[in-house]
Hints:
Strand content: 15-25%
Radius of gyration: 20 Å
CATH class of the domain at 222-363: Alpha Beta
Structural class: alpha+beta
Shape: globular
Helix content: 25-40%
Amino acid sequence: xxxxxxxxxxxxxxxxxxxxxxxxxxxxxxxxxxxxxxxxxxxxxxxxxxxxxxxxxxxxxxxxxxxxxxxxxxxxxxxxxxxxxxxxxxxxxxxxxxxxxxxxxxxxxxxxxxxxxxxxxxxxxxxxxxxxxxxxxxxxxxxxxxxxxxxxxxxxxxxxxxxxxxxxxxxxxxxxxxxxxxxxxxxxxxxxxxxxxxxxxxxxxxxxxxxxxxxxxxxxxxxxxxxxxxxxxxxxxxxxxxxxxxxxxxxxxxxxxxxxxxxxxxxxxxxxxxxxxxxxxxxxxxxxxxxxxxxxxxxxxxxxxxxxxxxxxxxxxxxxxxxxxxxxxxxxxxxxxxxxxxxxxxxxxxxxxxxxxxxxxxxx
Length: 364
């Protein structure tokens, strides 16, 4: 089962990481402990810029998040944030999905009987899956599924479901789309875990076309060989979020990197052993860049050379953490590097739970 194409997209508005830090400092006492911590976190995030559907700060005019004095931050209600999500996400689902189909050799819209969408940053019904079919002009008989609120690892269950569908029906083509507008939930805060969360999350979209058909273009596609899921013990409160009155209340604990460092080696080795591989057989590591500390701890725990995570670090630097869409950016970056045919790829993503999703992929 093959990933024939990957398309990615971000909102046109982007902010330098330093600018976002300055925005988040508004209303805080610059000499306070939270303010000093915020400055340190932003300065060492390894993120250059992040994209957002929020244009208020770039336009320097009053909007949903910026008050009329152009300095004070507003704190919109969850309803207001979700209304913006509904409008912006619908357009991004359609745009990135259309590009993925256009970039898949030998595939057109009439070939697609299945659509799988994933998102955790908003909700509406009819959902994104419905509007992808409607706005892309797909057949009204397309079978649809939406994966919601799984967070940063949601692309993996989406791809795994697509693989199962194409294994059952070798003629099927599945369009997988992940769209996340994380910045809609940024809130002024002095809580450490929330400061960490607001320092990394960004907006972005990724889509993939999956089919059992042999790719017509060698060296730029991926075969999905195996998947695995694992839950780290006693970690359900370290990466989580709840629906609050002013957006989703995100928690990204300072313990997450250490939890991953302790658990990832066994998870990786277990899947590799089941597939009769070992770490030395892996040519490329596609790790979800949840943050600098996460990449550092995972690399250390797996004893990877510094250059092994150049691709994920590039994605983190240029885009930040776009939740479920991010791993598709990482895989696209990998394919752009012209890997050799038959190279093995180990992919990892982490999310609420603390859940670790992994996959072994082959370059074809």
